[in-house]
Amino acid sequence: MTIDRRTWLTGAAAGVAGMALPVQAAKRHRRIAPSDRVNVAAIGAGGMGAANMEQLTSQNIVAIADPDLSHVAKSFVDSSGAPIAERAALKAAYDKADKYADYRRMLDTRKDIDAVVIATPDQHHAVAAKMAMERGLHVYVQKPLTYTVREARLLDELARTNPRLVTQMGNQGHSGDDGRRVVELIRGGAIGAVREVHVWTNRPIWPQGVARPAALPTPAGFDWDVWLGPATVDWGYNPLYAHFNWRGWQPFGCGALGDMGAHLLDFPVWALEPGLPTRVETRHSAWGENQRTPDAGEGDQRGSYPLATITTFTFGNAKGGPLTITWYDGGLMPPTPPRLPPEAVMKPEGGVMFVGAQGMLMHETYGEKPVLIGDGTAQRAAAIPQSLPRIKDGRQGHEMNWIRAIRGEEAISSPFAVGAPLTETMLLGIVAMRAGQPIEYDGAAGRITNLPDANRYLDRTYRKGWEL
Fold first, then answer.
1. What is the pLDDT of residue 14?
2. Which domains does the chain have, with CATH numbers?
3. Res 21 pLDDT > 70
4. Which residues form the Gfo/Idh/MocA-like oxidoreductase bacterial type C-terminal domain (predicted)?
5. 3-state percent helix, strand, coil for the chain, nearest multiple of 5
6. Lowest mean pLDDT segment, chosen from 43-47, 95-99, 141-145, 292-296
7. How far is the C-alpha of 183 from the C-alpha of 465, rounded, in Å?
8. Average pLDDT of the segment spanning 350-375
9. Residue 16: which pLDDT band, with cuts at 50, 70 and 90?
């Protein structure tokens, strides 16, 4: 039996691992007409945040919050220090915007903000999103939506109880034409019934499986305390943590699976509607060495994630029957299928392979360039009509889709109702990694049933002042 969204949310209402999920009503919400410009703020304004905000310069960028504005400034120059012409409009908007180190102060100070883009390290996502939503703000949150399973359920419940707020997760492939066609082809039976999917990525492209480095002096102007936010460890500053490499460190990021799972797992989960996994097992190389902190429970703070993993997700309640999705990262890939045609190249950068009863479908990251494999697949595909709406400008229009949805012009592409269960699925792979054993999962209850002690990995503790 498929777990529907109402059943899934029952677990959220009851709480994960016995934790209550308090949800407050939004306090302010401005009705925005199609002719209006949206007042947007950025939480995490450099790096990926700058890439997101670059798509929104047609709106009013009123404020940015980032603990290291010198890092934000690097978003406007190339490696030689020359200005990037394509980002001149963004630089002009940032120059005029109010600037804060701490987004908590920004959210309490600026009362004219309509919407926020959250592109921080993963440990901040849920905290920043909840604060913004409680203030009646629309939110765009980079992937993974949250750092923990409990946080994913909480944000979904908050969005459900405040339906006027427009939410979007930053998995831009969900807006792409190719990815939407993949979903139509799989659902339409182009390759027959699917019971097996293989997913791979070349991530990590940052350090993982390495020892924790020594602390270095924090650069001038970098508010390290704000950067740490809710994280309960302070190992001291090191460039192996900030500003890009945090993805590989367990207190701050969610590793390769958290970084790319929202892009690559999106399409099999979307097309096949398997519900939540019922069993998850992660095999991996060694964790990076770490000195255990006094307040850490067994296995809680293990330093950097393993360099390579294979995670097997079993969906015993999938809509079309039992389904297995296998994830590979760190340069690992699935075996090459027999009789794979020369044009169907399994690119190491990343891809998805659906194995059906009547053929296969393979696509690249973000759902792009789908290839049908097997006799009769092309003919069956040609007869499958378009059934999903297309998003203006495809995956390049993911940010503006959010704006148009705020203005009531277009349906939202990847709201939290989509992003939260997808995030929960991929985070369960990390839970299994931390548990060190296969986990059996009751998605309706939101609990691990075979290893009760592993339920603590569905949640986390928060540093004082950054509680969820």
1. 41
2. 5-174+396-416 (3.40.50.720), 176-390+426-458 (3.30.360.10)
3. no
4. 214-268
5. 35, 15, 50
6. 292-296
7. 43
8. 97
9. very low
Residue 388 CB neighbours (<10 A)? 13
DSSP result, 74-121: GGGB-TTS-B-GGGHHHHHHHHHSEEES-HHHHHHH-S---EEEE-S-
Residue pair 165/26 in contact (Cβ under 8 Å)? The answer is yes
For residue 327, give every residue at least 6 positions away whose Cβ sits within 8 Å of its Cβ, in sequence order, or none: 199, 200, 257, 261, 264, 265, 309, 310, 311, 312, 313, 429
* Mean pLDDT confidence for 435-463: 97
In the chain, % of residues over pLDDT 70: 91
User: How much is the pLDDT for 340?
Assistant: 86
What six digits make up the tokens of 102? 């701490």
Pick from 35, 163, 59: nearest CA to 117:
59
pLDDT at 22: 47
SS3 56: coil
The two structure tokens encoding residue 270? 């979307």
Tell me the HSE value of 465 on the side-chain side, using a 13 A CA sphere. 10
DSSP-derived secondary structure for 354-420: EEETTEEEEEEGGG-S-EEESTTHHHHHHTPPP-SPPPTTGGGGHHHHHHHHHTTSS--SS-HHHHH
| Contact present, 357 and 193 (Cβ < 8 Å) | yes
Strand ranges across the sheet with 371-373? 371-373, 359-364, 350-356, 194-201, 323-328, 309-315, 279-284, 439-442, 447-448
Q: What is the side-by-side order of every strand in the sheet holding 115-118?
A: 98-100, 60-65, 39-43, 115-118, 138-141, 167-169
Q: Which two tokens stand for residue 252?
A: 């701050």
E runs forming strands in 202-339: 279-284, 309-315, 323-328
What pLDDT band is residue 290 in, cutting at 50, 70 and 90? low
- Which residue matches tokens 């006027």? 164
What is the secondary structure of 35-46 as a DSSP string? TSPPEEEEES-S
The token pair at 272 is 């096949």
